[in-house]
Amino acid sequence: MTFCKGELCELRPLDPEDEMQVGTFTDYVNRGLTTQHLFTGSIPMRTKDYQQKWAAELKAGEILFGIWVDDRFIGTCGLHTHRDIYKSWEFRILIFDPEFIGKGIGAEATRLTVDYAFSRLNAHRVWLGVNEENKGAVKCYEKVGFKHEGTLRDEIFVFGHYVNALRMGILENEWREMYAR
User: How far out from the chain centre does Cα 175 lie?
Assistant: First the structure.
């Protein structure tokens, strides 16, 4: 079931009971082909572990999408860590299929998700954290309209060394100015 459709991809709700979705995600993440910049690292997990994780996130009110190109499940994105009093959401994305990295799909999925946050959830602010060494992701977020808000020094331990994390965010009025309808 399509939830949001762009020119390059569509977003569909993630379903922890959908064995194809969870199995594909587990397989790709455990291979580690595109997870070198994740904050949480990449630890081997079972399909059952991800089913439970997704179910718990959904129960907590988080918004989870699968990113689809044609009929191929290639990544996930969503809105997490909702702070109702501030009308703030954290954006996260992972394109786990390396064939689809660098083709504009991440930017489109980001735009669709952020637009949903502002247009449907009445968000005031959407923020994210990104590994400073992930230059492609930083460029993508800047292109979509996120602004640098700060640097957390040595925030993430990746492959034997610490790296900085960048905090980036976009406010609803900035979004409206960029994407005026």
Answer: 18
Q: d(Cα 172, Cα 87) in Å, to the nearest integer? A: 10
Split at pLDDT 50, 70, 90, the class of 138 is: very high
Catalytic (active site) residue 116: no
Q: Report the SS3 class of residue 167.
A: strand
Cα–Cα distance, 6 to 10 (Å, whole number): 6
Catalytic choice (50, 116, 141, 179): 141
Q: Tokens 């569909």 map to which residue? A: 12
Residue 42 has pLDDT above 60, yes or no: no
Q: Specify the pTM.
A: 0.91
All domains of the chain in start order, with CATH: 4-178 (3.40.630.30)
Give which of 25, 33, 27 is closest to 78, Cα–Cα: 25
Residue 68 confidence (pLDDT) above 80:
yes
